[in-house]
Amino acid sequence: MEHVLSLADRHLTYLMRQIATRNAFVLMHPFAELKTFAAQVYVAECYGFRYERVELVGRQRMMHVHLVRDPSPAARQRAAVNSAAFPDLGPGRTVPGMRPGTLTPLPEAQADVDLLTDLIRYEGLGHAANQAQLKAIAWGSAVFFALMAALSGKYAVCLTIAVLLPLGALGVLRFNTARRAKLAERLTAAGCTTVRDAEGQERFVRPVRYAV
What is the pTM of this model? Predict the structure, then answer.
């Protein structure tokens, strides 16, 4: 009888294949929760990778989490120790920091996975709440529907939309900005430091504290 892989097994099978064969790879799944991404990042870092960045891709804004192999001696040592301690045994495998056959963190890994979840959420919200883009959408839609009101004579409908769309876009921007501010406080309290990427986006770099 063919063994049916659980969702966690499928995530782990993909993850371990990438770790074994790639120097950089992307985690993506349309329905994955942020804590699932964070758990996978935790495992990958135990095998010598490091979290690099988040992107929101395509019209559906699917989250892509990028990882790259860490060339530092500490990362190589960590990878060697964990590869020996946790051999890849297929379905139901045990990986560092997770309960067997799952992506549920053990108590000793929970704080790190929570921190990674906050980090991924912070960067994802930064892409989703692009201030310049949202403001352009807000004021562009206002102008468009105001013109439509003048051209069509349907002032009640078009002017209502011209007001509501900008308010909605600016409301999203304000909400996401407030959420990012709270996440930034938590990340700073956890010892993360702020940097600016090539696009001028504020990002956080966290210390990796995994024991080997």
Answer: 0.79
Listed in sequence order, the residues at least 6 apart from 15 whose beta carbon sits closer than 8 Å to its beta carbon are 27, 40, 43, 44
Q: Would you put residue 166 in left (φ > 0), alpha (ψ -120 to 50) or beta?
A: alpha
Minimum mean pLDDT range among 112-121, 133-142, 191-200: 133-142
Which DSSP state fits 2? P
Tally Cβ neighbours within 10 Å of residue 100.
11
What does the alpha-carbon distance between residue 159 and residue 106 come to, in Å, rounded to a whole number?
Answer: 55
Give CA 56 to chain center in angstroms. Answer: 9
As to burial, measured by CB atoms within 10 angstroms (0-12 exposed, 13-18 middle, 19+ buried), residue 115 is: buried
